Structure formats: C-alpha cells, structure tokens
TrEMBL record:
Keywords carried by this UniProt record: Membrane, Transmembrane, Transmembrane helix
Transmembrane domains' residue ranges: 38-58, 79-98, 110-127, 134-155, 175-195, 202-222, 251-274, 286-305, 311-333
Protein name according to UniProt: Membrane protein YkvI
Matches recorded under InterPro entries: YkvI-like
Length: 340
C-alpha cells in the first residue's frame, strides 16, 4: 500500500515538475518576492485538487480521463474541457520534444538528434503500457528531486541565505490560484487514466499529501534562492543556470541531464493522457497510438509556437480557474449539483 502510494506520488510530481518548473522559469513567473504564503496556499490547493481527482478516478474505476472530467465539470462543459485537455497535452508535448532538440544542441548534437532521442525513448517506454512510465518515474524522479534539493540547499548554505527572513511580507499570496490552476488539466488527464489501478484510498492520501508537501518545500527553497539572484535572472533563459554558474562545470552538465529527464517525464505524462483517451474510442494498442501521436508532433516542432502559446495559455488559465473552483468545492457541489 505504501509502495503504491509512492508510485502515484511520483506520477503526480513527474506530471507537475516539468522543464518549466525544474528550470525555475515557471516558479519565478508566478512567485518571486513576498510569495511564502502563496506557496503554502498552493500546497493546500494542490493536495485537495489531487485528492478529489484521484478519488473520483478511483470511484469511477477509470482508465482514461473523460469520466473523471464529466464528474468534475458537469455534462454540459465536458465536451469543451475534453478538447482543451487534448490540445493542452498535445501542445505541451510538442514543446517538450522541441525542448529535447534544443537540449541536444547545448551538447553540440544536431537538433534532430535531440528530437530523435526523446521520440525513441517515449516509444520504448510505452511498449509495455502504462507500467513503463510508473517504473521510470520511480527511478528518475528521486534523482531529479535529490539533485535539485542538493543544489538549492548548497546554494542557500554557501550564500548564507535566510529561509524565513521575509515571512511578514506576503502581498503576492493570490499567485497561488493561477499557479495551481495551470497544473490542473494535465493532472486530470493523467490521474484519470489510473483509477482502475488504484487499490485503496490510503494510496490516494499518501500520493496527494506527499506530492503537495514535496513540491511545496522545493518551491519555497527554490523561490528563495531565485530572489537572491533576481537581477541576474533576466540574463538567463533558464534561471537555474544563474545558480549553477557558482559551481563546477560537472555540476552544470549533471543538472542539464536532469533537466532533460524533467522534459522527458513531462512529455511521457502528456502522451499518457492523450493515448489513454484515444484508446477509449479505438482498438489500437497503446504503443501504436504513441507512434501515431509522435508522428503528428514531430513536424510541428519546427514551427513557431510562441504565438500559439500566447493565445492558448491565457485561455487555459481562465478555464482552469473554473476547474480549480469545482475541485476545491467538489464535496459541497457533489451533494447539490444534479448536472452530472
């Protein structure tokens, strides 16, 4: 039971702690100065949201996200959010594949070598079904989290930073809501796909509270470190590199590899949500659906997605706030809302 709980916990963290989070860019965009309370609120909102999603998924015995989505947002809005989730997962995965190509270039490999490596790895991962993702999460994520925490604590110690020096200044507390909301759609998709594999509600509590606490602690220490180098962040596309410049080249290479694995786990979670949804309306095996989806994505990695993301992501943020509200108030709405 404990082992299964940790398995789902790593799946949740792997879905959330993508390249944007691990690089520090996502945290700095939402948090920054005076955000201690915002991060605490994020832990609460995130843990509650995950618990509701997993509980609905468990009760529905679901193998894809549609029954869970229908329960959360209601019948009338299910079609809209079904399309939104599919587009979100598709575009995010395309960006992750392109990110792998860019990471390859950082190691003096061609762009297409970087793309090919992640595509082949994703196909191999899903040959044995969902189990492959769960297994690799259990091996990769402790290494990724451990490396990240080590660097951040080392930086905190070397720079003699105080972790709670600005606790009375918390004007940015509202950032918790959009930050949590933007992570909701992929969690609905991924956790909706494993409801038939969860065996007890104890696993749900372990996974949801554990993932919330781990992400909260890392977010707080990471954000505190970024505040100290706020003037330098503008010079770096990846804020983590502004921290790593204080350490040997070997450390930079090691963390760059871990960043690639963050890209990989995000792409794998996106593919999981997509293909399990498609499998509910087709008879193709999982690995073949993965090949088909990746074949559609590869050509799109060469296009400019900044305009696309610029239009779509703000819409995600608005719609996701509605989903977040439904999740937080689900125990109350579940009793009085007949539209399900």
């Amino acid at each position: 039971m404990l082992q299964s709980g940790f398995k789902w916990m790593f799946l949740i963290i792997g879905t959330t702690i993508g390249a944007g989070y691990a690089s520090g860019r996502e945290l700095w965009q939402f948090f920054g100065h005076e955000s201690g309370l915002a991060i605490l609120l994020f832990v609460i909102l995130f843990s509650v949201s995950c618990t509701v999603i997993m509980t609905v998924s468990y009760n529905k015995n679901s193998s894809h996200y549609l029954p869970v989505l229908q329960e959360i947002v209601g019948v009338k809005l299910t079609g809209l959010f079904d399309v939104m989730i599919f587009l979100y997962l598709f575009t995010t995965t395309v960006v992750m594949i392109a990110g792998s190509g860019a990471t390859g270039q950082a190691f003096n490999l061609s762009y297409w070598w970087g793309v090919s490596i992640i595509v082949v790895a994703l196909i191999i991962l899903f040959v044995k079904g969902i189990g492959g993702l769960l297994v690799i999460n259990q091996f990769i994520l402790p290494l990724l989290l451990g490396g990240l925490i080590y660097i951040l604590l080392l930086f905190t110690y070397d720079q003699e930073l105080a972790l709670f020096s600005h606790w009375k200044e918390q004007r940015n507390w509202t950032a918790a809501f959009p930050f949590t909301a933007l992570n909701i759609l992929p969690l609905v998709a991924v956790l909706g796909a494993i409801g038939n594999k969860v065996r007890s509600k104890y696993e749900i509590w372990i996974a949801c509270i554990g993932s919330g606490l781990i992400l909260g602690v890392i977010s707080y220490i990471y954000n505190n470190s970024l505040i100290q180098i706020s003037e330098e962040i503008l010079l770096y596309e990846i804020p983590l590199f502004a921290i790593l410049k204080h350490y040997p080249l070997e450390m930079l290479i090691f963390m760059s590899i871990l960043l690639w694995f963050a890209i990989f786990t995000t792409a794998a979670s996106g593919i999981l949500g997509l293909v399990t949804r498609l499998q509910s309306i087709s008879k193709f095996p999982l690995w073949l659906l993965v090949v088909i989806m990746l074949s559609m994505m590869i050509p799109l990695t060469t296009l400019g997605f900044s305009t696309l993301v610029g239009y779509i992501y703000p819409v995600y943020g608005i719609l996701n706030l509605y989903v977040l509200t439904r999740l937080v108030l689900y125990p109350f709405w579940n009793k009085v809302d007949p539209d399900r």
